[in-house]
Amino acid sequence: MIKRLAIVPARGGSKRIKNKNILNFCGKPMISYILDTAKRSNLFKKIHVSTDDNKIRDIVESLGYPIDFMRPEHLADDYTPILPVLKYVTEQYMGRGLIFDQIWLLMACSPFTEDQDFIAADKLFFEAGQKKSVLAVTEYPVPIEWAFTISDNNQLKPVNPGMFATRSQDIKKKYYDTGTFAVFPSNYLLSHDESGLDTEFVGYVMKKGSAIDIDDEEDLAFAEKIFTANQIQNKKK
Known about the structure:
It is a single chain. By secondary structure, this protein is α/β, with parallel strands linked by helices. Helix content is about 30%, strand content about 20%. Strands 4-1-5-9-6-10 form a 6-stranded mixed beta sheet, sandwiched between helices. Strand 2 and strand 3 form a beta hairpin. Helix 1 packs across helix 4.
């Protein structure tokens, strides 16, 4: 039987949105949505929230998700990449006799991710031979070839001069990391340090409406409007 470990990083001290991981999002702590989605998927042997913050620990445990150990201080600063955190958690469980085949990174601020996303991504992982990591991605809303930089006095400079005249249907689609979840083979995770490689993924394409990355107050306000609208729509069905 395949054993999957879900790790939800949730350190304290978020800068752009205070207490982002546990703030009230449409009636519940933000982190509760991804935890409940993971539970509904029935994929995971263990769901672990990796935190250094006692308040986050208390809220997570009150939601019904016991935390077996805390994250050490040296892995909880503003500069530590996520891979060493995942590796630390995996090794801690190995020391307790719990060996996992897959390590899933689930981001705490992902209230739009659905259990069916996890199930489909797991299928993709097996179709890729269980050796490639899976990254949740979504399509850019417009071609990145049309991008500009902007100066202090609001002057625009095209990143790709002349590409504005190319029709979108003539440009190959591009995708970006949604910041929602990823799947790693356990042996890959344990053999890599720091940030790992960005050339060893297959992409699970999420719907644009499910791929809202909440990084700042503007993102949060937008996400709340979309989430509330979705709830109203679902009640009408």
